[in-house]
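Team,

Forwarding the record for the chain on the shared tracking sheet. I've put the sequence and predicted structure together so nobody has to dig through attachments.
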Amino acid sequence: EMNSPDYGMQAFLWWRPEVAQRDLELIRDAGFGWVKQGFAWREIEGTGKGQFDWSVADRIVDQVESVGGLHVIARLDNEPSWASGWAYPNEQNVTMSPPRDLQDYADFCGALASRYEGRIAAYQVWNEPNLKREWGDKAPDPEGYVDLLRVCYQAIKKADPNAIVISAGLAPTTRWDNVA
């Protein structure tokens, strides 16, 4: 049996520590118990397989703990170009794509969960996989998403058995085609 994780709020804490501090305090003071933050794979392991830059992720986890009263939900998505084969000429044209090798994603998920064992309470695997733009500009692939969810779940649970693993939320849509 698991208790409900109460209520949470999505925040953008990555780029500006002073804004992150303000927002975390507002979230806590509003009575929320959870904060969801993207931990973009390409920001942490973007330069190459096994080449991690934990500096911003460490700051965020430390900052959430310093505010107190909040649990972190880490959204894991935004693959690096080395993992997908996509080139990202600028941030305006970035899409998300599942990696060519699911083990690369599993390794990232496991490394993150290992580093923050007991400090990040929950992990959301990917984002809105029912949208073409979140699925490598291809038709959404439910079976492919289940495979992605499975490898990440297994890696997280191996590194941190007490972590909660959450499937990605679906985008609301009225379409049922190769776009959504």
